[in-house]
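Write out structure tokens for Phosphonate ABC transporter ATP-binding protein.
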Amino acid sequence: MSLTTIAVEQLSKTFGRTTVLQDVDFEIDAGDMVALIGPSGSGKSTLLRLMVGLTRANREQRSRVTIMDRAVQQRGKLTRCSRAERCRVGYIFQQYNLVGRLSVLTNVLIGHLGSMPRGRALLGRFNRQERLRALEALSRVGLESLAGQRANTLSGGQMQRVAIARALVQDADIILADEPIASLDPRSAREVMKILQRINEEDGRTVLVTLHQVEYAREFCRRAIALKQGRLYYDDSIQHLTDARLQALYDDEGLCELFDRRPQQPDTITQPAAAGAAL
Ligand SMILES: Nc1ncnc2c1ncn2[C@@H]1O[C@H](COP(=O)(O)OP(=O)(O)OP(=O)(O)O)[C@@H](O)[C@H]1O
């Protein structure tokens, strides 16, 4: 297996007449923890959906998404992935996507469905080993004591931790988390980010997380990828993401000033002319 675990090449997406992503290109190495940031509407969620094949990109010759050496889509067409291949990517949603009337444990067990024999999966018959793994995952997110409780009685932070436990049971090598802390209070948000960081550091799972709060990106991620108006605007170490660059990312006036007064740095700020021209 190559070191690159996610490769996005020349990805563009147009809805009707609106282009929401344009020529986005980046690679993520196995085991990295990356924040995907950018103003509201810059295309972060659309990009994640393209990466897991929930949406098709524009049909352009060199457009491709590869996850763990396997193309998910190319030239705007989805490729056929086996159930096992789909299980290698865990997707965590802002709104948790739990089944509220089922117990916490059953929600976590659902993570096994993709790798179980179809017959057992259809009947929802989980064996002892699968139950033990689900309990172990719940213990890693600190919720084993709530295993029997209905999911819709949990707080938002607890629900998100159950969603992470479900991805752990799925044994996903890559976790894509779409604004997992957007609906949470600061304490719960920090807990969820710490859990994501732990599974990245302890298990070596690759994590790509979209965030609105840049301070969490700075605290928990090693690298940032930023989108602005659908274009890749920044892709580098989180340490080089200065306040001036952040201001430029979120504030149009700042962007003009940055490009007027400073020499361009093509290694870290990509496509500055295009981003500037879009103002
Ligand atoms: N299915 C769709 N049909 C039409 N337009 C869409 C669709 N999905 C997304 N868009 C548009 O694409 C743009 C980017 O949306 P997206 O949700 O990817 O941005 P985002 O950066 O994740 O925003 P936020 O941070 O507010 O969640 C928005 O203008 C949105 O309205």
